[in-house]
Every structure is written in C-alpha cells, then in structure tokens.
Amino acid sequence: MASGMEWFFTALGAVVVIYYGVKLLRFTRMLYPKRWFPLPKSFFLSMGEWAVVTGASEGIGRQYAFVMAEQGMNVVIMSRTKVTLDKVAKEIRESTGRMVKVVVADFTKDNIFTDIEEELKFLDIGVLVNNVGMVPSVLPQRFLEDEDLDQTIVRVINCNVRTMVKMCRIILPGMENRRKGVIVNIASGIASIPFPMYSLYAASKIFVERFSQGLQAEYKDKGIIIQAVSPFGVSTRMVGYQPTNRTMLSPQDFVKSSLQYIRAGDKTYGTICHMVLGWLLLAIPSKILHTEFMLQGLKKYVERKQAGKKSSSVIVEA
Fold first, then answer.
1. Residue 82: half-sphere exposure toward Cβ, Cα within 13 Å
2. In CATH, what number is assigned to the domain containing residue 226?
3. Which of 247, 234, 303, 305 is nearest to 276 (CA)?
4. For the chain, what is the radius of gyration of the CA atoms?
5. Cβ(192)–Cβ(231) under 8 Å?
6. Contacts 24+ apart (CB under 8 A), 217-223
7. Burial class (CB in 10 A: 0-12, 13-18, 19+), 113
8. Is 11 within a domain?
9. Strand, coil or helix: what is 224?
10. Which one of 190, 232, 269, 303 is least enclosed by Cβ atoms within 10 Å?
C-alpha cells in the first residue's frame, strides 16, 4: 500500500514538472518569435495578390493595411466613412505604390454582404484581417443602463460577430481552393474572463476567439492560417487615444509585434506585455474581480482617464 502511494505521488509530481516545463518552454519561445516563428520575406505576398482589411480607416486596421501594402500586396480597405477611406487609400498608394480598392460599408447594418461579395469577386485574396468592432460605451456600464439597449444589441452582434463570420464565408472558399491564406481576427484581451461592465462587448470577442480556433482546427490541413489576436491596450479611438507606454501600445508597434506571432498558434495576445497581462488577469480569482468594490474602482479609473472626452457615445473601430 505504501509503495503504491509512493508511486502515485512520484508519478503526479513528474506530471506537474512536465506540465510546467512545457509552459515555460512555450513562454521562452514567445520571447524570441523571429527565431521560433520565422517568416520568409515574401510570406504574405506568397499567400495571394490582395489583402482585405475591415475597419481600415484608422487605428489597428489602418496599420494592418499599410503593413500589407509594404509587404507588396494590393489592399482592399473597408469601413463606413468614404472620406477617411479615400485619404488612407491615397496615403497607401503614395507611400507604397500598391493598388488600393475602397469599399464603403457600415458593418452595424443588415444586408450589406451581397454588395461586398460582388466587390471582392475575382480578386486573389491571400490575407483577410477582420478588425472592425465596436464597444457600446468606453465608460463601464451595466447591461441594462444602455438607453437604447435593443438597438445596441443588434449593432454589436452585427459588427463584432456577424461581420467576421460573413467575411470568412466570402473569402475562405478561395483560400481553400488555392490551399493557402491567412485570416487574422481581432478579439480582445478582456475576453479572457467574464468581464462585468463590458459584458456584451467581452462576450462578442470571446466568440471571435472560439470561432477562430475552431476554424483553424478545421482548415489548418488546407494550408490556411487562422488566428485570433487578443490585445489589451492599443492607443486608438476606442480607448480615447490614451498616451502610449509599455502596456498601451501604438497601433504601429502592436501590429508590427503581432505579425511576428502569425505562426505561433490559433490565438495570440500579440505582444509579450499583453501576454503577461492576460496571465495576471486569469490568475486573479473571479470572486475578487467581480466584487462591487472592484467594479466601482474600474468605473472611476476609466472616467478619470476619459475626463473631458466624449466617451459616453458608441465608439466604432472602423
């Protein structure tokens, strides 16, 4: 009996050591992405002639569009504001010499994807970046505090969930036929846990993660990379253009970092600092995070950060 218990605890200890050893090895790999996940210089261009980026008029989406053009790809930029898109298209053409196609679309609306599919027909699309997304209010609020809740529900689901699925439905078949392609779906770090005061937004982004991971399992043998990218702080309009620091990155720095992890698996936080933030968030017991004291503290913190800014309106990353 004693020898049996000794064997059990020895085996259990070995399993624990192996488990944490593997986690440490994986973390070490993340510190050196260029070594562990190298990308050939022509990697993105080898996927196809065109890249499609939703929510490309500003912020993260705009930067993805620029980087894809710098990689030699032509780009389709999509958003709801034609004037801003035309300006971005002009800047990309002048700085890279690549072709830019502008598609105006309000992704919070219904019945827009037939026209989008027509616009993209016959293009050799190698990269899709599903970036467009919205948060009902940058200020924390309880679900029922939204003054136009029914409309908000429709808009968030259309923009954050339906758009990603429909764009994959439109573009994935061509990638499957060519047996190559990259799809990047922008989620959010706060989707790591149930996140009160941003419940609808966080839930929509966990859908992005799970859908991306499921699709990658289905299509990785077809030569297609599908990845969810889950950033925390990036200085965009969605967070009121907060000053950059080690955790609040500029769109340029974030996109540059995240693309180094494109072959690192079906989900990435995009940067080491955001990865550490994600682990810390997961390590804190939910009973602590969900206390009224913590919720009110979050609200006061965001209000202080957003003082003097129009943060109570719907913010669309597009």
1. 2
2. 3.40.50.720
3. 247
4. 21
5. no
6. 217/266, 219/172, 219/175, 219/176, 222/175, 222/176, 222/179, 223/179, 223/180, 223/181
7. middle
8. no
9. strand
10. 303
Q: How many residues in the chain?
A: 318
In a domain, 97, yes or no: yes
Question: Which active-site residues does the annotation give?
Answer: 201
Asked whether the predicted pLDDT for residue 20 surpasses 90, the reply is no
Measure the CA–CA gap between 138 and 135, rounded to whole angstroms.
7
Q: Residue type for 304, please?
A: R
In whole angstroms, how far apart are CA 232 and each of 29, 107, 201, 213?
Answer: 21, 23, 13, 19
> Whole-prediction pTM value?
0.89
Beta-carbon-side half-sphere exposure of residue 11 (alpha carbons within 13 Å): 6
Token digits of residue 273: 């600092």
What's the CA gap between 239 and 232, in Å, rounded?
10
10 domain residue, yes or no: no
Per-residue pLDDT tens digits for 216-263: 999 999 999 999 999 999 998 888 788 899 889 999 999 999 999 999
* Overall domain count for the chain: 1
Residue 22 confidence (pLDDT) above 80: no
For residue 257, tell me if it sits in a domain.
Answer: yes
DSSP state of 186: E
Residue with tokens 């050939």: 40
Domain span including residue 226: 34-317
Strand order in the sheet with 125-130: 100-104, 74-79, 50-54, 125-130, 181-186, 224-229, 267-268
First to last CA, the chain: 66
